[in-house]
Amino acid sequence: MTATSPRREWTNAKRIVVKIGSALLVDSASGRLRSTWLNSLADDVAGLIADGKDVVLVSSGAIALGRHVLGLPRRALELEESQAAAAVGQISLAAAYRDVFSARGHTVAQVLLTLGDTEERRRYLNARRTIDTLLARKAVPVVNENDTVATTEIRYGDNDRLSARVASMITADVLVLLSDIDGLYTAPPGTDKSARRIDEVRAITAEIEAMAGGAASAFSRGGMKTKIEAGKIALASGTHMVIASGQRINPLRQLVENAPSTWFLAQSDPVAARKRWIAGQLDALGVIYLDQGAEKALASGKSLLPAGVTRVEGHFERGDAVVLRGTSGTELGRGLVAYSSEDALRIIGKKSSEIAEILGPDFRTEIVHRDDMALSRS
Ligand code: GLU
Fold first, then answer.
1. Which of 19, 61, 168, 329 could pair covalently with 237 via S-S, beta carbons 3.0-4.6 A apart?
2. Residue 37 binned pLDDT confidence (cut-offs 50, 70, 90)
3. Residue 219 binned pLDDT confidence (cut-offs 50, 70, 90)
4. Ligand 1 neighbours (beta carbon < 6 A)
């Protein structure tokens, strides 16, 4: 492979999550936004969207921007100080993204998440659908942690892991961690002359973890350790991850040029990984019985609608796993259900127009969406 040909993983990626660290976005001395850099990033993202790719940004910078405005000291902040800083800085952060993207004809959407929204895949449903809806309309979701309300116990604290959760949640093909370093080194490159960068990681072994050490830069909370944690989440979800330097202008262009970086290569694709998880790793809390028409619809790749359900058993909440059974009682597959058992019982066998009358206009069309379904024979 020459230094100029992009990796197949990059060329083939349809859905990309890009994590942007505070140190890239905010000048440490002045606390100002690095707007030339941000504009060049927006150019790169607009280019990817024009190529038909879905791009989600996970951006830090709220605390770094806000702490300066509030005149907070340069020492490590107390939790409530960083929360106050984030409350101030998030406004400027969102406005900066809105401005650079609207100049390129794109709408930006702010998505603030807390740990609970992404921690368990079954709780993903809401955030996932919202982000899907935004992407379908060519908006650029800009995600950050909802720092102002997150307390220590329910906090990621770093956007490396948050971005990996987001990538897993939306079944992204590639997660790019733009960082102040161009990859994973065998030892800290600043202090150890023998340190060399690793091109490719196929499994996160104890040896790889040991390389990550614990160091963090002045602004970023993570350092390499949380990047490796992010890698574990990504690889388990079938998402490739790349750590690349964000120091240069047009930071995503280097992926096309295959500039020095470290790729963490997933062994399966994200859709397969998600289906495997739905099929095998959850306790089913209920059973949904389908009529013949629905059974056929599922086999041809469609979602399950309430109209095709004849019976519901068990007690479950929205997002729980359920078993799907056909008319003969055989298991057709499993899925994450969009309704609680209580609501499901009220709407089974009913058409959309009738459901609107029972549950109000904000109901969901599918009882189990095809993306949330793993069929036994497929
Ligand atoms: N959510 C934090 C912020 O926006 C950043 C966390 C991190 O640097 O990883 O300032």
1. 168
2. very high
3. very low
4. 22, 60-64, 86, 144-145, 147, 158-159, 220-222
Which residue from 65, 93, 145, 160 has its CB within 8 A of the most atoms of ligand 1, so it is best to mutate? 145
Mutate to test the pocket of ligand 1, among 159, 178, 229, 243 (most ligand atoms within 8 A of CB): 159
Buried b (16+ CB within 10 A) or exposed e, 317-351: ebbbbbbbbbeeeeebbbbbbbbbbebbeebbebe
At 311, list the tokens: 């019976």
| CA of 158, closest atom in ligand 1 | 9
Over residues 13-32, the mean pLDDT reads 93
Q: How far is CA 180 from CA 87, 135, 222, 239, 372, in A?
A: 25, 28, 11, 22, 37
Can you tell me which atom of ligand 1 is nearest the CA of 64?
10
Can you tell me which residue has the tokens 């992204």?
A: 172
pLDDT > 80? residue 214: no
Distance CA 69, CA 286 (A): 52
**pLDDT score of 47:** 97
